[in-house]
Amino acid sequence: MELAGKKILVVGLGKSGIAAAKFLQARGAQVTANDAGPEEKIVAAAELKAQGIAVVAGSHPTALFENSDLIVASPGVPLALEPFQKAKAAGVPIISEIELAARFLQGRLIGITGSNGKTTTTTLIGEVLKDAGFPTQVGGNIGTPLISLVETSQADGFTVIELSSFQLEAVESLHLFAAVLLNITPDHLDRYDSMDDYAAAKANIFRNQTPEDLAVLNADDKRVATMQTNAHKVFFSCKRELEEGIFLRDDEVISRANSTERSLISRNEIGIRGAHNLENVMATLAVGLACGASPDSMRETIRNFKGVEHRLEFVAEINGVKFYNDSKATNVDSTIKALEAFDKGVIVILGGKDKGGDYAPLVPLVQTRCKHVILIGAAAEKIATALENTKPMHRAVTMEDAVALSTRLANTGDTVLLAPACASFDMFDNYEHRGRVFKDAVLAMH
Question: Contact, 178 vs 292, CB < 8 A?
Answer without folding.
Answer: no
